[in-house]
Write a structure and sequence with these properties.
The chain is α+β, with helices and mostly antiparallel strands. It has 2 domains: about 35 residues; about 30 residues, no CATH class. The chain is about 40% helix and about 15% strand. Strands 1-2 form a two-stranded antiparallel ribbon. The mean pLDDT is about 80.
Amino acid sequence: MDTALSIVQKIPRKFYLPSALFILGLILFGYGLIVMFSGNNPSNSRDSVISVTPPAQVVKQSSIKIDIEGGVMHPGLYEMNSGSRIQDALVLRQ
């Protein structure tokens, strides 16, 4: 029976890093399975507290301000409807 050192010596040197990463991945995967199925999951306990916060009120803006600069004829700050797109502003202000 070969020892672990002789087995490692038979592996070409270029496979050391991929082999080590593969073994590390297996260890982490196994650890994740153990933690997941251990039964000590705090979400399953009856003592957990759930706090509910009311949703934030959404303030709808009826208009937005767009600053157009660069290669347009009339650069500046323009006010558009909130549903408008940037292309609408560019076409409207050229």
